[in-house]
Design a protein that fits this description.
By secondary structure, the protein is of the alpha+beta class. It has one domain: Mog1/PsbP, alpha/beta/alpha sandwich (Protein Transport Mog1p, Chain A, 3-Layer(aba) Sandwich). It is 22% helix and 42% strand. The strands form 2 sheets. A 7-stranded antiparallel beta sheet has the order 3-4-5-9-8-7-6, sandwiched between helices. Strands 1-2-10 form a 3-stranded antiparallel beta sheet. The longest helix is centred in the middle third of the chain and has 15 residues. The chain is globular. The N terminus is likely disordered.
């Protein structure tokens, strides 16, 4: 390659990298619900049956990894509006147990259109992954009708501006 082309090729590669942001935010709908969310990367979809509200339900997940963080929105239809608060409380407790921590900062969280439940919370906690490495979790628990939701970020170190974009993007239509 001629010497003058090498700098041009390097400049072109750097320009392309600058056009590929780590956080490429996009609006995504949580299937079969009225929830729209912002995710910073193209999500994968998955589901598995889990016990909630005394029965097996399909827990759906939209999630992706970027910038050293995992972003996910999980949701299930428990079929009983009256049990939504109980389920959210149990879900939060199970998540903290999986992080191997009981300590967390909690503040009320209610995206527009969500039920006004005392268990609708935003929870920030530090814990350990199964391999023992440090992880920070920033999660929100909320419900609409008989649907329960968890929106969560797992990262070695959470960035406040990224968390703000993610959680402020949660809305019901």
């Amino acid at each position: 390659m001629p010497r003058f082309l090498a700098p041009a090729a390097l400049a072109g590669a750097l320009a392309l990298a600058a056009c590929s942001p780590t956080f490429n935010w996009r609006e995504v709908r949580a299937d079969a619900t009225a929830l729209k969310t912002l995710l910073p990367c193209k999500p994968d979809h998955g589901a598995r049956d889990v016990p909630m509200a005394g029965k097996q339900v399909s827990l759906q997940v939209l999630g992706c990894d970027t910038g050293g963080a995992t972003f996910a929105v999980l949701f299930a239809d428990i079929g009983d509006n009256a049990r939504a608060g109980e389920v959210l409380g149990l879900w939060k407790t199970a998540t903290l147990a999986n992080l191997r921590t009981a300590a967390a900062r909690e503040v009320p969280f209610r995206p527009p259109g969500a039920l006004g439940l005392p268990q609708s919370l935003q929870v920030v906690a530090s814990g350990r992954r199964p391999d023992g490495s440090k992880v920070e979790s920033h999660a929100a628990y909320f419900a609409q009708g008989s649907h329960v939701f968890q929106a969560v970020i797992y990262s070695e170190q959470l960035k406040p501006d990224v968390a703000e974009t993610f959680f402020s993007g949660l809305k019901f239509e």
